[in-house]
User: What shape does this take?
Amino acid sequence: MIFRLALGSLMARALTVGMTILAIALSVALFLGVEKVRTGAKASFADTISGTDLIIGARSGSVQLLLYSVFRIGNATNNLTWESYQDIAARPEIDWIVPISLGDSHRQFRVMGTSLEFFDRYKYRAGQSLAVRDGALMDDLFDTVIGADVAATLGYSVGDPIVVAHGLASFSLHENQPFRVSGILEKTGTPVDRTVIVSMEAIEAVHVDWQSGAQIPGQVTPPDVIRQMELQPQAVTAALVGVKSRLQVFGLQRAINEYDEEPLLAILPGVALQELWQIVGIAETALIGVSAMVVVTALIGMMATIFSSLNERRREMAILRAMGARPRVVLGLLVLEAVVMAAIGALLGLGLLYLALFIGQPMVDRAFGLWLPIDLPTPREMRVLPGVILAGAIVSMIPALRAYRMSLADGMIVRI
Amino acid sequence: MSQSIPSLRLDNVHYRWPGRLAFGLRIRDLTLAPAETVLLLGESGSGKSTLLSLICGTIMADAGTVCVAGTDIAALPAGKRDRFRAEQIGLIFQQFNLLPFASVRDNIVLPLQFAPQRRARVADVAREAERLCHDLGLPAGVTSTQAGALSVGQQQRVACARALIGAPPLIIADEPTSALDAATQTTFLDLLFAQSRAHGTTLLMVSHDARLAGQFDRVLHMADIAETRRD
Assistant: This one.
């Protein structure tokens, strides 16, 4: 019956109580949403590259190698000579090896030279392969395949010409050897979306008239002549490697790291991603902190609502006291109401989250390449709900104790 | 409970209002025999409400004893005193008696929630609430309506039913008719008297209206039994 009274009293103040519940629900939905996005982002991040056992580059740091070879952030300090590349490719443990050549750019996007095998070997999000949305893979020497973001940002479609710039943010263009967009890739949510992909030979082709990073004055070799040339790469920036047996990964890694001819570095992408996430993860903690503060704010809002209702409810409490209710019952009633509000708010928040996920999941995937899985709440998320209810009960103790003292002082006669 | 034990006895009670130093209420003697109906007349500000709070034990006397049904309420710990009040006393106020958001039935049975012995005297709580409503002339089916939806006169009758349920030995009414018009006043009082006589309940009504005097066994004046004073 006390519970019925609490419900009745809440219902009588439906508007303010409703607003309070809504605030709690939104804050809980936000908190759980941030949690979902966080785990989704972490999973998407870890899924940026899969199926590759080792990444090989010139010796630097593992995070740096990962950043420039996979995320196209920063630059390689050194290249890997073609001889070393061939040497490693010939090793018996190697199942496949894909070269990557970086250094040029188109507008704000990096140009990556690679072999056609890249499209088969590069996997993301649990083994998914790259897919061509429009057009086809490179066929001609001056063909290029561009990522979804490149196409969307620059408004390119299949057949459009592209001029590649030498280096990054450079004004010296390879304007004598224009490329043609032959294909546009599906959105993946990986750095491939922001990459202009050409063949290894094309990278050599645009540098035919260049020497030591500068154009040879007056020398212009026409594309048709270049097509006839032997375009042997001098060096590659990095290489993606798959081994025949996973057991050989560490042996091969050690062998490459101890390579005599040239200082090289081989990294396990998963381990390097972990290291990188530890750096990025600070932002995630900040995000969680902020959304937890929003929940706290909503609960303090509820406390304020209870406080402001105390005066108008003095008579109600006086009636309860006159009927024999101990002040403790008055206190319990207020805490019970807060618990009911917090519980409804928390459950509503959970509902809102799933509603938002159902509506927003495809949009978020399309816009950010971020896949938010819709599954049952994790135990960690489930702990949030009783946590909010408990916090609500604790917070409500403050106005409830005031009501306790007030009802002790008022007794059964209220002078308002 | 023996007939010789008075339903209510105040002996040389002294109460000093907190915050207002040296301003106190003193009641030399107030004794109510079982089943007696007493009207206590007094102007507003004569300490009536304080007297009722003293009897109910929501405020405590600084000196003297307040005995309800032979029990010195000052001797009870606070929690027991609240339960004792629920067991022994049915209360009717001037107005705003009910929890407006709760049903009439919940309002009527509310004191039973805190008084197990009084609850034990009622076999079927819901039916008893119905019966009291019927006897007090409330329309059938009223028990499931929200108390706040009733007229003032009907609310006072519901408050009356709440005071009567489980037959507490003492009913205290604080100007229960002042919010009612003359015709409703008479009906209300007739019903209250009929019910309390049927249960042999002691009735103490506080009012400033001397016209009610005729129906009571005894009429007391606040000025005769109590003095407010500065000392």
The longest strand of chain A covers residues 94-106.
